[in-house]
């Protein structure tokens, strides 16, 4: 792996990626190799080398910062070699395949000249080039502010100086500001039959290499020139491949070209090499081709036989074999061509890979069939249904025999849908074209299958609200909707009263639930009455399942029965949905089977699942707890819009403690949102919960509250906090997840491209809920630009979740983890402060 960067850059980031078992703390040593850049003179590192790079449990990447020293020395490109070396005593970690990296520091005081291409070819006596000179292009790298001289010399090859070619006289000079030159190489014609000769040219400093000019020659300092002999005849095919339809009486013409000395006749020998086509069964041709004197092009006619069989595309190769004696030719570079014979039997396939329709009453969907090839006769096409979770004759019906009349190329297959009026997941089934037999007269094409998805009518899946008068007395909350399998989320509490408290939920019904505030059994180590002033909390009721919200965000909710506590191994939950990134997870105890004070703690969250456990007050946290039902919710990380209501599903990062911490909503809300949250990590083992205050449309303050059942110490280390802020009230809808990925793929062209990821008013691709980002491929560092909203300080470049060879563009988000807005494929040398980025 190699990184290149100009010496004017002040820093370079080297990312180390960890994979495999992430459950433990580990470290690996980063050493310097044998590069010629000197530590302390050309670069520096805060910790020095070798460095022990440490990974916490669950941590997959670490970034090492190397500072590049911008000196005024003329020194050329220098390299830093890095090597990962694992400790043989640590059997749980080893260096992977990419255990070394080379960083090249391109000197900004050195100007280098090099060839623009590695090879050239020219005919010894070209009638189209009467001067018979070869143009060779030289390019010069920055800086351009001085004069540079180099010399052209022959470094090898069979061609002879002054017999086959002549070099330009004297050195090649680049004036200040000049970055391109064309030099002309004279090619000399002789009367010798000598075949292709090669000339290897090199560039070297002029007048001779010294410490002042040794770096004036770039990496592309060699080029090879092929001089084609004009006394030799070269024969080759005009193209690498040809395609033809088998149809009755069809022929195909393959082109042969002859260059060089064509003043005499040539007899060119061809041979066929069959793949799945057969000579004399599928085709035939004349294998001896005659070129008359002066004739440069010849068409080889290949006759095709229509076998009237239904078959795949057949192909064979034609090859030019070597000429002997009076054959008078040499085989050229394109000595082989491939001929594909397409079957002319009618091919039937679906018009699309999938179709989607709403189940609504009386709906039908039309699936397209296409027929190509020889359609002059009729075809009877057989279809079959393969049910997934939809059922033939219960959810849909269709005619499984489709008739194509002679000349008919397209057919619509109507599928009738039945509305069962049930709240259900999206149902789907496949339609497949089965093989035709005999008089059915068709071949099954590539798109032989299509998937039909039947979306259920939108259902109410959630209800959100707020209670402002909760105390230690139980109260029943009536809901607006009758749910089937609801789960309830109702924390954190406000902090009007300072005693450690949590919310206990009981008696969950389809249209109601009961709730009360519960204080710890002990306060400052002593029993107390448990009375508490009124507090405020938000609640969210969600139907269990996987749901797609109106903006494409994914929400999954479930329920687990457990007695696992924080001092045991805990409980693991695996998501059924595949999240693109680690989602925001909320958990809540749903029952009151054991009346002892209890809440949940979470850890090890990733895109696939998380761990959690029950946690009693600190004095009793190891004493065990009765089995409780615990609800969990996972929602795609970021901003979104749920039925027209703005929301933020966020994570604060590892920075919240017992002190008040502000989450900035960036004024995205008109009114104060409903606010829910959980501690998402287990960095501090003391029993803890989340509390909030000062909730407005602009921000909220949160803190971690330890209880005092065992001691009066309430300081707590930093933790990650998951939260959901939602400006809504009442019922919310959703549909079963049909998300297939929302990355917006953008490919560069040969021209200078501008990839727009934001404009003067806003950033694009910044909705966490849709996991959307721009995926940029074929980015040209020399000319392409990425446009972003705001300032360079609002963004940064980092490791991409799509792979270590890609670079991620991140938008900084106050109070939360940062937002991925773009991925640049196959590059990791971009600099946010370079000319490749424009900010508006």
Outline of this structure?
With 840 residues, this protein is mostly beta strands.
Strand content: over 45%
Rounded to an integer in angstroms, the radius of gyration calculated over CA atoms is: 37 Å
**Going across the major beta sheet, what is the strand order?**
40-46-38-61-47-48-53-50
How far apart, in Å, are the first and last alpha carbons? 34 Å
Could you give a short account of the major beta sheet?
8 strands, antiparallel
User: Mean pLDDT, nearest integer?
Assistant: 87
Helicity range? under 10%
Uncertain segments are: 1-8, 737-742
Question: Helix count?
Answer: 0
Count of strand segments: 69
**Structural shape:** flat
- Class derived from helix and strand content: mainly beta
Commentary on this structure:
The chain has 840 residues and is an all-beta fold. It has no helices and 69 strands. A hairpin with a 5-residue loop joins strand 51 and strand 52.
Question: Secondary-structure map with pairings?
Answer:
Blueprint lengths: L1 E5 L4 E7 L8 E7 L10 E2 L6 E5 L5 E8 L9 E8 L14 E7 L6 E3 L3 E5 L9 E8 L7 E9 L8 E2 L5 E3 L5 E8 L9 E9 L16 E7 L4 E5 L3 E5 L5 E10 L5 E9 L8 E3 L2 E4 L5 E8 L9 E7 L9 E2 L4 E7 L4 E4 L3 E5 L5 E9 L6 E9 L8 E2 L3 E4 L5 E8 L9 E8 L8 E2 L4 E7 L3 E12 L4 E4 L7 E4 L3 E2 L6 E6 L5 E8 L2 E2 L2 E2 L7 E9 L1 E4 L5 E9 L8 E4 L9 E6 L8 E6 L5 E8 L11 E8 L2 E5 L2 E7 L9 E4 L9 E6 L8 E6 L5 E8 L14 E6 L3 E7 L7 E4 L6 E3 L17 E4 L7 E4 L6 E6 L2 E9 L7 E6 L12 E3 L1
Parallel strand pairs: 1-8, 10-17, 18-26, 19-27, 28-36, 29-37, 41-58, 62-64, 63-65, 64-68, 65-69
Antiparallel strand pairs: 2-6, 3-5, 3-7, 4-6, 7-8, 9-11, 11-15, 12-14, 12-16, 13-15, 16-17, 18-20, 20-24, 21-23, 21-25, 22-24, 25-27, 28-30, 30-34, 31-33, 31-35, 32-34, 35-37, 38-46, 38-61, 39-43, 40-46, 42-43, 44-45, 47-48, 47-61, 48-53, 49-52, 50-53, 51-52, 54-55, 55-60, 56-59, 57-60, 58-59, ...
């Amino acid at each position: 792996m190699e990184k290149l960067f100009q010496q004017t850059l002040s820093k370079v980031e080297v990312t180390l990626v960890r994979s495999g078992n992430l459950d433990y703390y580990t470290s690996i040593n980063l050493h310097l190799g044998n590069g010629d850049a000197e530590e302390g003179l050309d670069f520096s590192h805060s910790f020095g080398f070798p460095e022990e790079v440490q990974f916490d449990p669950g941590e997959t990447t670490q970034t090492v910062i190397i500072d590049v020293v911008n000196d005024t020395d003329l020194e050329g490109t220098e390299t830093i070699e890095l090597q990962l070396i694992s400790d043989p005593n640590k059997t749980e970690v080893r260096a992977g395949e990419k255990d070394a990296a080379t960083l090249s520091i391109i000197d900004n005081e050195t100007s280098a000249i090099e060839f623009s291409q590695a090879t050239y070819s020219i005919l010894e006596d070209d009638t189209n080039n009467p001067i018979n000179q070869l143009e060779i292009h030289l390019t010069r790298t920055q800086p351009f502010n001085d004069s540079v001289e180099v010399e052209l010399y022959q470094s090898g090859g069979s061609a002879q100086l002054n017999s086959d070619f002549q070099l330009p006289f004297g050195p090649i000079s680049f004036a200040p500001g000049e970055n391109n030159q064309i030099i002309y190489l004279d090619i000399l014609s002789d009367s010798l039959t000598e075949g292709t000769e090669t000339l290897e040219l090199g560039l070297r400093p002029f007048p001779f290499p010294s410490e002042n000019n040794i770096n004036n020659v770039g990496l592309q300092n060699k080029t090879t020139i092929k001089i084609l002999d004009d006394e030799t005849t070269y024969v080759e095919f005009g193209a690498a491949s040809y395609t033809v339809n088998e149809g009755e009486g069809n022929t195909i013409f393959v082109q042969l070209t002859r260059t060089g000395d064509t003043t005499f006749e040539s007899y060119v020998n061809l041979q066929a090499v069959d793949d799945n086509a057969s000579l004399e069964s599928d085709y035939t041709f004349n294998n001896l081709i005659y070129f008359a004197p002066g004739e440069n092009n010849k068409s080889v006619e290949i006759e095709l036989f229509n076998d009237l069989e239904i078959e795949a595309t057949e192909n064979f190769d034609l090859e030019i074999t070597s000429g002997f004696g009076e054959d008078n030719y040499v085989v050229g570079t394109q000595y082989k061509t491939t001929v594909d014979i397409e079957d002319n039997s009618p091919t039937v396939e679906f018009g699309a890979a999938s179709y989607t329709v709403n189940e609504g009453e009386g709906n039908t969907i039309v699936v397209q069939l296409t027929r190509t090839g020889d359609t002059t006769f009729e075809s009877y096409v057989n279809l079959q249904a393969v049910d997934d979770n939809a059922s033939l004759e219960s959810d849909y019906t269709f005619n499984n025999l489709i008739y194509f009349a002679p000349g008919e190329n397209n057919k619509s297959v109507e599928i009738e849908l039945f509305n069962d009026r049930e709240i259900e997941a999206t149902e789907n089934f496949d339609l497949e074209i089965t093989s035709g037999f005999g008089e059915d007269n068709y071949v099954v094409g590539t798109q032989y299958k299509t998937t039909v998805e039947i979306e259920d009518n939108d259902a109410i899946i959630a209800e959100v609200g707020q209670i402002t008068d909760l105390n230690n007395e139980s109260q029943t909350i009536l809901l607006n909707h009758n749910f089937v399998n609801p789960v309830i989320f109702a924390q954190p509490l406000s902090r009007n009263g300072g005693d450690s408290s949590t919310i206990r939920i009981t008696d969950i019904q389809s249209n109601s639930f009961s709730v009360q505030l519960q204080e710890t059994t002990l306060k400052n180590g002593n029993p107390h009455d448990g009375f508490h002033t009124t507090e405020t909390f938000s609640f969210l009721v969600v139907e269990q399942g996987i749901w797609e919200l109106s903006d494409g965000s994914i929400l999954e909710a479930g329920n687990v029965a457990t007695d696992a506590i924080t001092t045991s191994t805990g409980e693991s939950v695996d998501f059924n949905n595949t999240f693109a990134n680690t989602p925001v997870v909320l958990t809540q105890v749903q029952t009151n089977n054991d009346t002892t004070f209890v809440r949940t703690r979470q850890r090890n969250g990733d895109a696939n699942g998380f761990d959690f456990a029950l946690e009693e007050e600190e004095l009793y946290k190891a004493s065990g707890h009765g089995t409780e039902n615990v609800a969990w919710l996972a929602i795609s990380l970021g901003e979104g819009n749920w039925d027209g209501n703005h929301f933020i599903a966020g994570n604060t990062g590892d920075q919240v403690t017992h002190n008040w911490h502000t989450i900035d909503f960036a004024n995205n809300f008109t009114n104060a949102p409903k606010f829910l949250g959980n501690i998402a990590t287990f960095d501090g083992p003391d029993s803890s919960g989340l509390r909030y205050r000062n909730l407005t449309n602009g921000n909220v303050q949160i803190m971690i509250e330890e209880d005092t059942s065992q001691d009066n110490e309430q300081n707590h280390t930093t933790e990650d906090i998951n939260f959901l802020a939602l400006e809504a009230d009442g019922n919310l809808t959703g549909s079963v997840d049909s998300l297939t990925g929302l990355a917006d793929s953008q490919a560069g062209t040969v021209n200078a491209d501008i990839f727009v990821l934001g404009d003067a008013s806003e950033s694009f691709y910044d909705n966490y809920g849709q996991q959307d980002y721009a995926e940029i491929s074929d980015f040209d560092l020399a000319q392409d630009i990425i446009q972003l909203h705001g300032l360079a300080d609002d963004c940064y470049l980092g490791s991409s979740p799509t792979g270590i060879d890609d670079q991620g563009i991140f938008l900084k988000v106050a109070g939360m983890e940062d937002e991925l807005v773009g991925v640049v494929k196959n590059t990791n040398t971009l600099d946010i402060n370079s000319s490749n980025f424009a900010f508006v």
